[in-house]
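Example (one chain per record):
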Amino acid sequence: MVCYDKHLTRLQEGAHALSYEGVPTKEEIKKAIKETLDANGMDNDTHIRLTLTRGEKVTSGMDARLNQSGCCLIVLAEWKKKVYDFSKGIRAISSSIRRSIPAFLDSKIHHNNMLSLVIAKIHANIAGYDAAVMLDERGFVAELNDTNLFMLKGDTVYTPFAHACLPGITRQTFINLLEENNMKIKERDLSLVEFINADLVFATGTNGEITPVTEMDGREIKCNMKFLEKIKNLFESKLPSLCEPL
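Predicted structure:
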């Protein structure tokens, strides 16, 4: 399992932030995952989505105190290919829907309230694109609707601040990887114009790992393939050390 403990920590911290009661321990979650994988004969190329709900209510309503039976953990495991095709890349279009900031809904909680991202994705697909570029409330790039973004300009890699995007585990893995290999990496506010004129744009995520973004808003983006292949190879070499046993 890649970055197993970090994913479980994020799940538990989100549940704590939302005042969940009876949150399962990491050992209990791991036991449920292993039982699910064993029951389905899954030992490779498997994607697992964990969902933790407040559990059964004594009656309908928004009051969290109505959930009195403890949390309900759902383990959805499936054989699944990567979300995007590395060889084709991602064509993206900017969305009119803004990514939420902590003043409204903190994206650092990995929650299921993703309707704004789903609608943005639908709009992008209707327009003939693969993904939507989400901007923050000031108009700076936050992320794609389902992955984090990086761009290369000159000898420096940039990624948007995480105030309006999920600070992804794979995102942080790439930041660490670049630093470990003495490559320049900076977090800052980045505009669409900067991404469109970058030497390379790529997206990162758990089920996509790394994929180039080839187009934004109808403008072709340069692709420094030599650099892209280098960091892709570095990531794949690092991957075994990121895997943790069940």
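Caption: Residues 61 and 149 are 38 Å apart (CA to CA).
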